[in-house]
Design goal:
By secondary structure, this protein is mainly beta. The protein has 3 helices and 21 strands. It folds into 2 domains: about 35 residues, no CATH class; about 290 residues, no CATH class. A hairpin with a 7-residue loop joins strand 11 and strand 12. The protein starts with a helix and ends with a strand.
Length: about 325
């Protein structure tokens, strides 16, 4: 969305400047047009809704063996949860501003865009400094399903109706204000995206439910023994903050690494390095089996209690050398 906004703005400026004649605009021209060097963009969106998100694995899991794979395309599906009146009743993802943690401009995000020649023959880069208001991110039901076939009337593919097995009942995240710096091109900061900020009030995840559909029977609505609902591990709330604090330091680097077959035969990957400070975690309301199980008088009282973790610190070792551990965690994501 941010990239479309930037492209639309730059295109309109170039067209109006010289009736379809394409010409470069340096900082002096930008300063005359905007009152300062570079470009400022305020994104005044109040809410974003997404009906469904599907991630298709086109070759599935290899057939045979003990894994039960069929080599048939499957999908991860994020969709509405169908709960009447819930924010995710019909929408898989709903993102809105956290009114308790807004930017001074009241925008959802403010962007400051600059280009720089950098150093050396190929040092040029685009710099985007982003300030983001606190967000309420509500995610509906997350399922796995059989991928559908491409439509002949639209670009939709979807999933086969009735093939979905829910694995998460959903979750909600509440964040504070954040800043990020994005560099495209030479990226002298050392990573494409660099986060170095404090999330005021920490991070809170609410209403997280992990489902086990292997135990469900019949209609899975829990109405009888023959219609047993899926088992669920339910967590009312997870709060994450710096050790002995209320806010959460966010210090992470996100890089996209290209192929390098000559050295390690990799096709490329996304890497996220973060978690450099110790954290406290408090999990409120842990339920095993079903949160709403039992009779009307005991329903909701079957929690096993709260769980607290103090001073959690992870380490990673990029060189695998003894004693070379570094505070944080490195997450690598690639296709196969």
């Amino acid at each position: 969305m941010k990239m479309f906004t930037k492209l639309a703005l730059v295109s309109s400026m170039a067209i109006s400047a010289n009736a379809m004649a394409m010409q470069s605009m340096d900082d002096a021209a930008l300063s005359a047009a905007t009152g300062q060097d570079g470009i400022n963009i305020g994104i005044g969106i109040s809410k974003v809704e997404i009906e469904k998100v599907l991630i298709h694995d086109n070759d599935g899991l290899a057939a045979g063996g003990t894994t039960g794979g069929t080599a048939t395309a499957g999908a991860i599906v994020i969709s509405g949860n169908g709960v009447a009146g819930d924010v995710n009743e019909t929408q898989g993802v709903v993102i809105s501003a956290n009114t308790a943690a807004l930017l001074p401009t009241l925008n959802l995000a403010d962007l400051v865009i600059d280009t720089d020649a950098g150093t050396g023959a190929n040092g040029a880069f685009l710099n985007v400094a982003a300030n983001v208001s606190g967000l309420n991110i509500n995610i509906g039901k997350i399922s796995v399903a059989k991928s559908g076939t491409a439509s002949t009337t639209s670009i939709r593919r979807g999933a086969v109706t009735g093939s979905e097995n829910a694995i998460l009942s959903g979750l909600s995240l509440t964040t504070g204000t954040m800043t990020a710096n994005i560099q495209l091109g030479a990226a002298p900061q050392g990573a494409m995206i660099k986060l170095n900020t404090t999330m005021t009030g920490g991070l809170e995840i609410k209403n997280l439910g992990i489902l086990d559909n292997s135990t469900a029977l019949g209609t899975k609505d829990g109405s009888s023994a023959a219609n047993r609902a899926a088992g669920e591990i339910r967590l009312d709330s997870i709060k994450v903050a710096d050790a002995n604090g209320q806010n959460l330091a966010v210090d992470a680097e996100i890089s996209v690494v290209g192929k390098s077959g000559a050295t390690n035969a990799t096709a490329g990957y996304l890497q996220i390095v973060g978690g450099k400070t110790a954290q406290d975690i408090y999990i409120n309301g842990v339920y095993l089996g079903s949160k709403n199980g039992g009779s009307a008088t005991t329903r909701g009282t079957n929690a096993i209690g709260d769980v607290e973790v103090q001073g959690l610190q992870t380490y990673y070792n990029p060189t695998h050398a003894p004693g070379a551990d570094i505070k944080g965690a490195a997450i690598t994501i690639s296709g196969h």
